[in-house]
Amino acid sequence: MAQKVYAGVTVDVNEEGYFTNPSQWTKDIALEIAKEENLILTGQHFAIMEFLRSRYLGGEALSIRSINHSGVIDVKTFYQLFPGAPLKKATKIAGIPKPVSCI
Questions:
Q1: Of residues 47, 64, 72, 102, which has the active-site annotation?
Q2: Alpha helix (H) ranges present in 5-60?
Q3: Contact 8, 26 (CB under 8 A)
Q4: What is the pLDDT of residue 103?
């Protein structure tokens, strides 16, 4: 298992850089990961990350469809907030493993 240091904290990550222990995540860590992804986080970013974390920690599968039905954000805005591969990028910054639905 690999480790990485964010905001002065050593966290466990897999070979792709996704957290293997979501309890190590903090908002300060999210800010540093976002910098690596060339993003500046806003309240909307954190709202969707909290949604993703609560769904993941509750044992639910994550998908773009679940984002659209979240009531937190619509899919178009999700793609704008996390350009490129939004679900992969959002889960990485949110400190949770990459969803199975992502290649």
A1: 102
A2: 27-36, 43-57
A3: no
A4: 58
